[in-house]
Amino acid sequence: MKITCVGGGPASLYFAILMKRQRECHDVTVFERYPAGRTYGWGVTLLARLIDLLERADPQTAFEIRRHAFRWDEGRVIISERQPAYLGGAGISIGRSHLLEILVKRATDLGVQVQFEHEVRDIAEVAGSDLIVAGDGANSRLRGLLADQFRTRIKVGRNKYLWLGTTKVFDVFTFGFVATEAGWIWYHGYGFNSDTSTFLVECSPETWAGLGFDQLGTEASIRLLECIFAQHLEGHPLMAREQSTDLNPWLSFRAVTNERWHHGNVVLLGDAAHTTHFTIGSGTSLAIEDAIGLAAKLHDYEDVKLALSAYTRDRRADLRRAQLEAFASARWFESIQRYTALDPYQFGTLLMTRRSRFQAHLPPLVYYHLFRTASSLGKLPLLRRLRDRFDTRRRRLLQSI
Ligand SMILES: Cc1cc2nc3c(=O)[nH]c(=O)nc-3n(C[C@H](O)[C@H](O)[C@H](O)COP(=O)(O)OP(=O)(O)OC[C@H]3O[C@@H](n4cnc5c(N)ncnc54)[C@H](O)[C@@H]3O)c2cc1C
Q1: What's the confidence (pLDDT) of residue 372?
Q2: Ligand 1, atom 8, residue with closest C-alpha
């Protein structure tokens, strides 16, 4: 089978690896528009269940990712000058460029042709393939060319964000909120290797304009953010992926959904098919899960069209929960003025439970007390046993990192 994957992100690369593992004789090519080693963004968090899935799908990739993953052991919320609230939790992250390096090497070793600096502009360029995988990200060009068939919907988020890195290593996953004269601005900080962290800044458009970010290029935005977050950064610099002088380095999140995920022999994978807000840190894991799902269906069905239909049906259903949670999480950060008067522990508890469908519909303190009551009911023997079993499994997975 001749397979062409457009876009060299985690979705396409992992799919290419799995197809080559399935049958060595598959002819698999990945086209990536950028040169090797160039990408956007910094470190990404990975879902705990992903390592388990990778282990089953391709142990060698799992081993490499596990070897290079960075582990953090606690969640912390800092609001202005108030005492930090520590809220438990643990997780793993990895540098996006490192992850891609691992995937490119594995794909190439298996015989996938990875062609960098090759931008696909039209479907006609790859028309001779039995299967065309549009893994070209949230702004997918291929999807755009067939937008009527896929029935794409894009909802632009309200808040502004800037994905930066820093040399300060956050070994505790930190949400830091600072009150400025123009409103609240905050970051999500987490380490992803021994000398770098992701530092993702977010604020409302009013705060963004009020602080003058609408008039600042990348460098000037970074210098101002270093002042705003000086206490949190403890002298460490912030870094942009590319030192550009763009007038508007800030972005608004684009929530992408598609009514259909395939048309003819073209199939959407990863962010091209769906995006989930970055505040739930799942997009990469979900993109890789798409790759696993698609490869499995192509293994199970002789007929490519039947395989694509089954992939679409199952993955859409699997994603429903993550999409609802991502929606609730994005809304939470768009409404933080509802919560900022709470004490740090209450605020942190609501932040950590922001994916709940109910939270937005209840007064914050009512939800907080309901949550606390439900948690203490969780200490009843049967519920505690169930929760402990879940925690043990999760801990075991994380300890294996
Ligand atoms: C601010 C932010 C923070 C995030 N944090 C996390 C996180 O912590 N954890 C997490 O799991 N996810 C996170 N994500 C989401 C994650 O980055 C994506 O979900 C994931 O990268 C999707 O993988 P993909 O392979 O589908 O697309 P991408 O990784 O976007 O890859 C698409 C590739 O296609 C290439 N391309 C595009 N057009 C063409 C073309 N025409 N021809 C050839 N090549 C092309 C691009 O250069 C790119 O390399 C975050 C996203 C954002 C925006």
Answers
A1: 87
A2: 44
